[in-house]
Each structure stands twice: as structure tokens, then as C-alpha cells.
């Protein structure tokens, strides 16, 4: 579980599928009201407080983005208390009550995204993807000092999807950035056919 502060009242939490499995939670469970998910959210908020000093009291807007190969991104935005006092449940018998007032939004993206520190790694993975006839598609972004390659699964043979992920993971790492954030804040370097373009221009 990785937590980072986006602003004074907003944090982003990146959960890998391993994080979910360790807690006995399937990806689909995040859409359901079950105790395990509430426990996970409480754990996330406790960690956010201990690591960042983020106090999750008051109304919270929670956005959950499911990413196909990486895991899940949870963005928590703290609202104003409107003068109400902060009363958290402390007794065991009160733990069944809603401690957090949440407005939850769920989004699922099929876009596969991996980030790379060095452009040489981007070139290497693109050459491997092309050589293995896995894909020549993709959009390349620059975001926060890293290169991010985004692939549309619909343009990848479903039987070879895992092979694509394996290659991407060999050279890069799963990114906790959502596609919506990438579109809004990232810089588009190659809008289409990124794998083919990179192999054409950087072939040796």
C-alpha cells in the first residue's frame, strides 16, 4: 500500500492486487458493502494519518479507480466539517457504525499503463513488444519526470495479454496514476502507434 499527499485535503492510495489478496478481498468486492472493505478503508485512513498526518474526520469523497494490470487507486478528498464537532467511535460496540461519512465513486479503466524512469527502458520494451508481435499500438506520455506507456487492451490479442504485462513489468513498474489524471496533467509525446514509432526512430 502506497500513500501520497496530493494537497492539504487530498491523498492518493495505491493498492496492488497483492494488497487486496492479503486481506482476502477480490477486486469486485470494492464495489460491495462488506466488512472487509470497511476494515481496509479504516486501515488506509490509519496509515494516512500515521504517515502523512492526514486526519480523515468529517465528510470524505472517495474515488476508486480499478486498473487492469496494476491494482486500484483510491483518491480521498476531505470536505469541510460545517462547524460540527469531530466525534469518532472509540468503543468496540460502536465500530459497526459509520465512522466516516463517505461519498464513493467507482471507475474502471481497461487501459494498461506502466511508467519508466529512463527513455532507454521505453525503447527496450517497445522493441521487445514489436519483436514478439505483441503490439505496435500505444500512447506515450511524459508525467512527473517519468515516461508512461498506455496500451489499449482491445488492440491486444487477449491470449497474449499476460505476455504484454510481463514485458512491461520487466522494464517498468505499474503506475498509480489514473488515465484521467494522465490525460489532464501529462504531456502527450506520441498520441498513437507509440511502439511502432519508437522502434522506427530508435532502431539500431
Automatic annotation (TrEMBL):
UniProt family annotation: Belongs to the MecA family.
Name of a matching Pfam family: MecA
Originating species: Paenibacillus radicis
Taxonomic superkingdom: Bacteria
Job description of the protein: Enables the recognition and targeting of unfolded and aggregated proteins to the ClpC protease or to other proteins involved in proteolysis.
HAMAP family cross-referenced by the UniProt entry: MecA
Gene3D superfamilies found in the cross-reference section: 3.30.70.1950
Note on domains (UniProt): The N-terminal domain probably binds unfolded/aggregated proteins; the C-terminal domain interacts with ClpC.
UniProt-recorded name of the protein: Adapter protein MecA
MF-aspect GO terms: protein-macromolecule adaptor activity
Chain segments annotated as transmembrane: none
Subunit and partners: Homodimer.
Amino acid at each position: 500500500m502506497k500513500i501520497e499527499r496530493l494537497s492539504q485535503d487530498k491523498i492518493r492510495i495505491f493498492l496492488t492486487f497483492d494488497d487486496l489478496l492479503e486481506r482476502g478481498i477480490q477486486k469486485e468486492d470494492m464495489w460491495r458493502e462488506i466488512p472487509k472493505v470497511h476494515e481496509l478503508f479504516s486501515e488506509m485512513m490509519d496509515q494516512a494519518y500515521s504517515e502523512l498526518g492526514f486526519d480523515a474526520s468529517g465528510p470524505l469523497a472517495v474515488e476508486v479507480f480499478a486498473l487492469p494490470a496494476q491494482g486500484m487507486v483510491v483518491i480521498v478528498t476531505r470536505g469541510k466539517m460545517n462547524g460540527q464537532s469531530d466525534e469518532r467511535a472509540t468503543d468496540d460496540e460502536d465500530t459497526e457504525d459509520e465512522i466516516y461519512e463517505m461519498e464513493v465513486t467507482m471507475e474502471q479503466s481497461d487501459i494498461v499503463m506502466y511508467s519508466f524512469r529512463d527513455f532507454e527502458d521505453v525503447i527496450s520494451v517497445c522493441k521487445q513488444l514489436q519483436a514478439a508481435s505483441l503490439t505496435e499500438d500505444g500512447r506515450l506520455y511524459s508525467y512527473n519526470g517519468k515516461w508512461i506507456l498506455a496500451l489499449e487492451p482491445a488492440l491486444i490479442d487477449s491470449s497474449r495479454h499476460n505476455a504484454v504485462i510481463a514485458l512491461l513489468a520487466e522494464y517498468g513498474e505499474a503506475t498509480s496514476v489514473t488515465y484521467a489524471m494522465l490525460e489532464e496533467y501529462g504531456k502527450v509525446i506520441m498520441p498513437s502507434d507509440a511502439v511502432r514509432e519508437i522502434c522506427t526512430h530508435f532502431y539500431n
